[in-house]
Specification:
With 76 residues, the chain is mostly helical. The protein is built from three helices and no strands.
Length: 76
C-alpha cells in the first residue's frame, strides 16, 4: 500500500476514515446476512462504517451510499 497516495486521495476527495471494532463488524455481517446476502467480515466493515458515519451526521439519511461487499457465505 502506498500511504502518501492514500492520504492524498483522502484530502482531494474530502474523505474521512473511521475505525470500527471486530464486534461491530460481525454485527453488521449478520445484518447483511439477514437480508439474504453473504459477505466476508472485511466487507462488513464498510457497512459498519457507513452506519457510524450516518450516526455521526457525516452521511445524511436522504443520501445514497454504496458499500462494496466481496466474498460469499460459502467462503467463511
Amino acid at each position: 500500500m502506498n500511504l502518501p497516495k492514500a492520504l492524498r486521495s483522502l484530502q482531494i476527495m474530502n474523505g474521512v476514515v473511521r475505525q470500527v471494532s471486530d464486534e461491530t463488524i460481525m454485527e453488521h455481517k449478520a445484518l447483511v446476512g439477514r437480508y439474504g446476502f453473504g459477505c466476508e467480515p472485511a466487507s462488513a466493515a464498510s457497512v459498519a462504517g457507513a452506519r457510524q458515519l450516518l450516526e455521526e451526521g457525516i452521511i445524511q439519511p436522504n443520501e445514497r451510499v454504496a458499500c462494496v461487499l466481496t466474498g460469499h457465505m460459502l467462503k467463511d
